[in-house]
């Protein structure tokens, strides 16, 4: 292999940027309603068991994380890049993502005067999954990656079964999180000592499985994209079948939920590839996708600042609730403010994209 071949940059797929961007835009939409008292019904999570359209958003992003690793890291390994250097690069980026998530939670604790600091969160989970997926791509063969995926799903299912009830607070992941982090969780009842965190430690096993499915989907996209749809249908069928014994549950990230959501994500990736890469449709959402962490972290910091100063509630009351609720209802007004927030963030991201500004951490 020549030096020019070994240093060739991996191909970039506009379909992946578009799908990542649409997923990030959906994150902003579901995370920032005008008021949590009147969330537009389709944008609400399942109360416990089940899977709404909103419950697809986070696993979609983790599948795309795996796809991106398959498109960005794996080609470098195949070109003979130094695996030690790649490992250091992956781990440092993962640590930066985790650190950014912890910094946002520090701002929330400080600005909103929360009773405790919460160390777990969305970016923290993304960082852990990026690290694990990157290490798998660098050091494991595809067959071994598949065996790891199967072991994760089977092992986590066995842990949930051994742990007994899957009910809120009494399930095994919640008990583990409570034992290790106690009052530092997203939800904690001082009277009973029970707690729960939707981005908890043990449930991250399911999230890792979602990322490994994405790594496999990235390999298919590179070499056999026509197999993405059959793979998606197989995942959907397996997830639906497994849900009869182990229900879909985002909070616990159950194995059936892994397969079901990864099936939809793989189908979306196939469709994006057909429309954007093959038929050259405009990559709608790309501007969110090429600055994904900037969009998520920047919008989160903005909302925290607005909540701390009272301007978020003021904007809701005077900009949307007062005049739109009497016309269309409180849920529609809440949705309108969420849509306006996403549209607001489109402008700076479009400006950055036009000037070739892409912030990476």
UniProtKB/TrEMBL annotation:
Record-annotated membrane-spanning stretches: 56-74, 94-111, 123-140, 147-167, 200-221, 228-245, 257-276, 288-308, 328-347
UniProt cross-references to InterPro entries, sorted A to Z: HGSNAT_cat
Residue ranges constituting the Heparan-alpha-glucosaminide N-acetyltransferase catalytic domain according to the UniProt record: 12-158
Protein name in UniProt: Heparan-alpha-glucosaminide N-acetyltransferase domain-containing protein
Record flagged with keyword Transmembrane helix: yes
Keyword set includes Membrane: yes
PANTHER family on file: LD22376P (PTHR31061:SF24)
Keywords: Membrane, Transmembrane, Transmembrane helix
């Amino acid at each position: 292999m020549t030096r020019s071949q070994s240093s060739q940059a991996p191909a970039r797929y506009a379909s992946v940027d578009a799908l990542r961007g649409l997923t990030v835009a959906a994150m902003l939409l579901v995370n920032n309603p005008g008021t949590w008292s009147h969330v537009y019904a389709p944008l609400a999570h399942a109360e416990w068991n089940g899977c709404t359209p909103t419950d697809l958003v986070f696993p979609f992003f983790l599948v795309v994380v795996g796809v991106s690793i398959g498109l960005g890291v794996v080609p470098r390994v195949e070109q003979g890049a130094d695996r030690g250097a790649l490992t250091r690069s992956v781990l440092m980026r993962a640590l930066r993502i985790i650190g950014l998530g912890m910094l946002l939670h520090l701002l929330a604790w400080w600005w909103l005067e929360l009773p405790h600091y919460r160390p777990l969160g969305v970016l923290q989970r993304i960082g852990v999954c990026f690290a694990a997926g990157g290490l798998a791509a660098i050091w494991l063969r595809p067959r071994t990656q598949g065996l790891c995926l199967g072991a994760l799903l089977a092992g986590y299912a066995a842990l949930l079964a051994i742990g007994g009830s899957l009910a809120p607070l009494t399930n095994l992941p919640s008990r583990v999180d409570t034992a290790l982090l106690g009052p530092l969780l997203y939800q904690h009842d001082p009277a009973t000592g029970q707690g729960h965190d939707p981005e908890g430690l043990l449930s991250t096993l399911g999230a890792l499985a979602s990322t490994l499915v994405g790594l496999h989907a990235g390999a298919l996209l590179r070499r056999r994209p026509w197999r993405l749809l059959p793979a998606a249908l197989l995942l959907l069928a397996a997830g639906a079948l497994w849900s009869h014994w182990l229900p879909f549950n985002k909070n616990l990230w159950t194995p059936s939920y892994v397969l079901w959501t990864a099936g939809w994500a793989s189908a979306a990736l196939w469709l994006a590839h057909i429309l954007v890469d093959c038929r050259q449709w405009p990559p709608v959402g790309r501007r969110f996708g090429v600055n994904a962490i900037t969009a998520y972290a920047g919008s989160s910091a903005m909302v925290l600042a607005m909540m701390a100063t009272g301007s978020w509630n003021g904007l809701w009351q005077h900009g949307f609730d007062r005049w739109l609720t009497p016309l269309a209802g409180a849920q529609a007004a809440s949705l309108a403010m969420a849509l306006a927030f996403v549209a607001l963030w489109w402008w700076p991201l479009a400006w950055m994209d036009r000037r070739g500004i892409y912030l990476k951490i």
